[in-house]
Amino acid sequence: MSATGIGASVKRKEDFRFLTGRGNYTDDINQPGQTYAYILRSSHAHAKIKKIDTADAKSAPGVLAIFTGEDMQVGSLPCGWAVNNKDGSPMNEPPHPPLAQGKVRYVGDQIAVVIAETYAQAKDAAERIVLDLEELPAVTTVDAAIAPGAPLVHDDLAPGNMCYDWEIGDEAETDAAFKGAAHVVSIDVTNNRLVPNAMEPRAAIGDYNKGTGEYTLYTTSQNPHVIRLLMGAFVLQLPEHKLRVVAPDVGGGFGSKIYHYAEEAIVTWASEKVRRPIKWTAERSESFVSDAHGRDHVTHADLALDASGKFLGLKVYTKANLGAYLSTFSTCVPTYLYATLLAGVYTTPKVYANVKSIFTNTVPVDAYRGAGRPEATYLLERLVSKAARELGMDQVEIRRKNFIPADAFPYQTPVALQYDSGDYEATLKKAMELADWNGFAARKAEAAGRGKLRGIGISTYLEACGIAPSAVVGSLGARAGLFESANVRVHPTGSVSIYTGSHSHGQGHETTFAQLVSETLGIPIENVNIDHGDTNRIAFGMGTYGSRSLAVGGEAIMKALGKVVDKASKIAAHLMEASAEDVEFKDGKFTVAGTDKEVDFGTVALTAYVPHNYPHETLEPGLEENAFYDPMNFTYPGGCHICEVEIDPDTGVTKVVNMTAVDDVGRVINPMIVEGQIHGGLAQGIGQALLENCEYDENGQLLSGSFMDYCMPRADNFPGFQATTESTLCAHNSLGVKGCGEVGAIGSPPAVINAVLDALADKGVTDISMPATSHKVWQAIQNAQMPAAAE
Amino acid sequence: MYDFSFQSPASAADAASALGAAEDGKILAGGQTLLPTMKQRLAMPSDLISLKGCRDLVGISSDGSTLTIGAMTTHGAVAASTEVAKAIPALSALAGGIGDPQVRNRGTLGGSLANNDPAADYPAAVLGLGATVVTTKREIAADDYFQGMFETALDDDEIITAVRFPIPQAAGYAKFDNPASRYALVGVFVAKTAAGPRVAVTGAGQGGVFRASDIEGQIASGQEPNSASIDEGELNGDIHASPAYRKHLIGVMAKRALASAG
Asked: Which residues form the FAD-binding PCMH-type domain (chain B) (predicted)?
């Protein structure tokens, strides 16, 4: 292993820029003649627009233009994944206009855009827009939305507020499996709605150039090419060659910056109308009501077991809240990214799931770190722990008894996926050692002496990421391919620029990808530059989400590097007057087997661009290669998370005192970056379990609309994490990599809640919902001890 | 934020005149509540009168029986003061637990008291210690000063100049944080004084900070404090805590405050 190659904890090349304020984020970009947009948003959850009078506002100082939905008649913001109903009929897909048409459907829905010389002027003018809205009753929860007579978010375009009623697995066979069961364990769980809260608020600059007819959009996106395609082809009908989308440095996404948002289309479209660049930057309160939210499921599930505790079948009924409109990938999250994971790490032979996805008068819901897999993991790992308690089995033994054995791969599940590799016993064993599982009883007794309730919880999970094979996702309804592209440009002096279609918004690609190049070409990491985020510089790309950058984007780079080495070997063979088949390349040097002939990579690069002595008959000059890579399968990281908590019974406060994560993420390129990714995921997972909750009142007003009420995790909420890896290699990519971006947020929530319930078991508490706040824990203890006085 | 005129007088007297003359003036005494409110366009003062230049409003002194703190003294300065730590360590700890370092380096004692946020920490100390609020016009006893949520005895053109804290025999403060904002969900200040115990509760009451006379009686008679007699109907309920939970926490925090008073 070289100091900067695969497996080295190279310090992040991008951090100097970020930590010294030299980043270049969308809001840092300013164009000559730039104007500012303010979006007037609905303060009602559901209302009919009777009249919008902008006359007075248009006369306000500095105003260039005001547009409403009546002015902006363009295409609908598209949904990228078609999901069919049980009967094969297509889902209900009501239009999603960038500016509201006729009705507003959630607090935050876009009503009008004011464009002025300054942002303050735009905001001042917006106060002078006179709205005549007829308020309508609103629905915010899935159960309220499907109740008979519920207000309809999309009227007759989505009867019963239903988007689709979908299923996977064989219901009759699963029912049959339940017939022979010795035990059936049931559970009801809610997966709480979350607000993503990336550090950098969303922003967009639209810039139309009358001279060339070209549009440029600078935007806070995880996937600029996808935005170009969706906005260009579907919303504004602009061809790719006249539309450039740039996503410069982006300060965190967690999924919320995947989607094509209204504001991007609004500033791009309006910049042509006012013939000036237009900048929009969200304020933090605006982010709360306009960034797609995450999770929000209500589920009932039944697990059938034989007398020995072996799983026979699983039935799952989930209602998913999609919010008011279909965000770009909203429809696949509670279906193909959720129900396909319900076999988990277990040999459950029959699995059936029914998912109803439902419109409500709330912010649209879409993928958020883990996207569907945390929901599946939470359900399954809560249910397995509950089964162990009900059957009087050990938490670990019930899992071991049902694990897919390490020699059973490839393993076909009853819910579509085929796992390629894994060793769940290995990650379990290592996590139990690190967490000192067997020493828990002594720690519990010691805590009891201090008046504290100590509990331990476990989660053994897997996920599917590295998305994904285009052919597979296409057959499941995806309206896009999911390959990745790479371009390797070797410069005459031997330094290298990589152009990747994936996008870094905090993940450290500029370092990890450079390590691949340093390792493969044997050149110093300082001689490598990673470029991304600009549709004019990058051939194509599907962007970064679903922990796909290394497993898909990294593989594309490896493929292009392979082509570079092939061509360079031919040039080297010519220089050394040898046959290309006899040339070997190692540590940056080309040699001829059995001779002392040697030429280094830099000399070959120079020769490619100064081809005086060159095999012109058979080879083009230059050294630059492209590759596209489309994987054969998803990748399947997995592992074991163990959480230990102490609860103060006087106040209900839960303190996480120990958090251990042993994850199988495939081959590790940079252990320090992987550990950092897992730490971040754990923080978000523990945040969901104990702190974070997005709450609406029954009228659709957001109660947790700022950091005063939405509890973001802080460093003092956590202990030091024990996070490490215990990997098997991915069987279908050359690097053997799986992905690490989401595992922390996927595996940890059930470990935390199982620990809380373990701590409260002696008090008679058997259930608690996320987030397990101090208030809820205290209330659960009260209810368990005084059932008659329960609230 | 809407436009406003900015004034920076050099003394409390000048600031009071400026406040009296302004159409709808507001005092800027740290701005930790006022500025976010203005940024959200929920307040639009005609004039913002900064007390930053009023050197007569800053300072900490003790004569052995009374601790006097200037109104513009920051929470950070109170927390760091050896004078405060020696005289009333509970006050020192309370100041060090307000908000975060940024808030403590800008926010001031006078600013907090003039705003009288129902979840602020200082009102519990001022009422619990039976302090005297000194203004440009008069001296106001703590028992008369707090008049409900965001309501005080201050006139429109009156500015707090200092607070005089009688040094108690012992005191303790226990705070249960709102998990999101980290304001007090419930904060209880217990002071043992020559005239008997005083107990003030912040964060919980619908009318802001209040004295818990039953708990004072329990402490005086040597009982363990409890919140059984607190009227739940007078307590706040929100997404973070029900009135019942707040009532329970008042009892727990009273015990902890008493224990820390020693």
From this structure: 1-170
What are A's interface residues with B at a Cβ cutoff of 8 A?
A: 120, 123, 285, 650-651, 691, 693, 695, 703-704, 707-712, 773-775, 778-779, 791
The predicted pLDDT at position A785 comes to 87
Q: Where does CATH 3.30.465.10 sit in chain B?
A: 58-166
Neighbouring C-alpha atoms within 13 Å toward the C-beta of A572: 28
Tell if the CB–CB gap between A778 and B179 is shorter than 8 Å: no
Q: Which domain holds residue A106?
A: 31-136+199-252+257-290
pLDDT value at A1 more than 90: no
Which of A476 and A339 is assigned the larger pLDDT? A339
Q: In which residue ranges of chain B is CATH 3.30.390.50 found?
A: 170-261
B176 closest CB neighbour out of A651, A703, A704: A651
Same domain, A623 and A681: no
Question: Shortest CA distance to B45 belongs to which of B33, B57, B58?
Answer: B33
At A790 the pLDDT is 45
Q: What are phi and psi of A303, to 5 degrees?
A: -120, 125
B129: confidence class by pLDDT, cuts 50, 70, 90: very high
Q: pLDDT tens, A550-567?
A: 999 999 999 999 999 999
Sign of CA dihedral A95, A98, A101, A103: positive
Q: Does B249 sit within 8 Å of A712, measured CB to CB?
A: no
What's residue A788's pLDDT?
54
The CATH class, in words, for B170-261 is: alpha beta
Looking at the structure, give the CATH architecture of the domain made up of residues B58-166. 2-Layer Sandwich (3.30)
Q: How is residue A72 written in tokens?
A: 């902006």
Residue A309 gets which letter from DSSP?
S
Rounded average pLDDT over B201-217: 97
Q: Are residues A520 and A623 in the same domain?
A: yes
- Decide if A174 is inside a domain: no
pLDDT over 90 percentage in chain A: 97
Residue B37, pLDDT > 90, answer: yes
Angle of the A509-521 helix axis to the A555-575 helix axis, nearest 10: 30
The interface pTM score, or ipTM, of the predicted complex is 0.96
- Percent of chain A clearing pLDDT 70 (strictly above): 99
Chain B partners within 8 Å of A120 (Cβ): 1
HSE toward the beta carbon, residue A24, CA cutoff 13 A:
7
CA-CA distances (angstroms) from residue B201 to A356, B103, B128, B208?
Answer: 48, 22, 8, 8
Q: Does residue A330 surpass a pLDDT of 60?
A: yes
Q: B22-41 burial, b if ≥16 CB within 10 A, otherwise e?
A: beebbbbbbbbbbeebbeee
Contact A691 B179 (CB under 8 A): yes
Model confidence band, residue B207 (pLDDT cutoffs 50, 70, 90): very high
Q: Which of A288, A289, A770, A778 to mutate to test the interface with B (most CBs of B within 10 A)?
A: A778
At A363 the three-state DSSP class reads coil
The encoded tokens of residue A101 equal: 């048409």
Task: Provide residues of B within 8 Å CB-CB of chain A.
Answer: 1, 40-41, 176, 179-181, 239-242, 244-245, 248-249, 252
- Cα–Cα nearest to A456, from A445, A465, A470: A445
Is the CB of B181 less than 8 angstroms away from the CB of A709? yes
